[in-house]
């Protein structure tokens, strides 16, 4: 078992590729799969900086998650013209709509909301 805290780059890569639970398991015995934010120490700005420096990771994340067809109890991300948009959908209706000029900021928002780190 590795010693906490989890290095920030490992955290970022895990949250972007959906493997944060597996990463947490290598540091903590039986972490809760429903509340992984206690193992996340990254900040919004560090995540944005990482995504700006690694635009291919931002694009890969966006391409995967923009295909989300669910419209109930889910955070969605998509593009409209030159903007990127995130919103929480409840019964097909968007709430907390946020618009971004950069993909890095939109992806950071989507990731952080999904991990309860708004």
How many domains in all? 2
Q: Give the structural class.
A: alpha+beta
Give the ordered list of helices and strands: HHHHEEEH
Shape: globular
Task: Measure the end-to-end span.
Answer: 29 Å
Overall strand count: 3
Largest sheet: 3 strands, antiparallel
Radius of gyration from the CA trace?
14 Å
Task: Report helical residue fraction.
Answer: 40-55%
Low-confidence stretches: none
Order of strands side by side in the largest beta sheet?
1-2-3
Give the averaged pLDDT, no decimals.
Answer: 95
State which percent range the strand residues make up. 15-25%
Total helices: the number is 5
Q: Topology, pairings included?
A:
Elements lengths: L7 H10 L2 H6 L18 H10 L1 H11 L8 E7 L2 E8 L2 E8 L2 H12 L4
Antiparallel strand pairs: 1-2, 2-3
Helix pairs in contact: 3-4, 3-5
């Amino acid at each position: 078992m590795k010693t906490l805290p989890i290095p920030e780059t490992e955290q970022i890569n895990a949250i972007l590729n959906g493997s944060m639970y597996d990463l947490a398991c290598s540091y903590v015995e039986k972490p809760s799969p429903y509340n992984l934010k206690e193992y996340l120490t990254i900040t919004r700005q560090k995540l944005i900086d990482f995504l700006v420096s690694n635009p291919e990771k931002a694009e890969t994340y966006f391409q995967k998650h923009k295909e989300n067809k669910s419209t109930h109890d889910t955070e969605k991300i998509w593009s409209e013209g030159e903007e990127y948009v995130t919103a929480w959908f409840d019964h097909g209706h968007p709430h907390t709509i946020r618009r971004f000029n950069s993909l890095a900021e939109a992806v950071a928002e989507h990731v952080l909301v999904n991990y309860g780190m708004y």
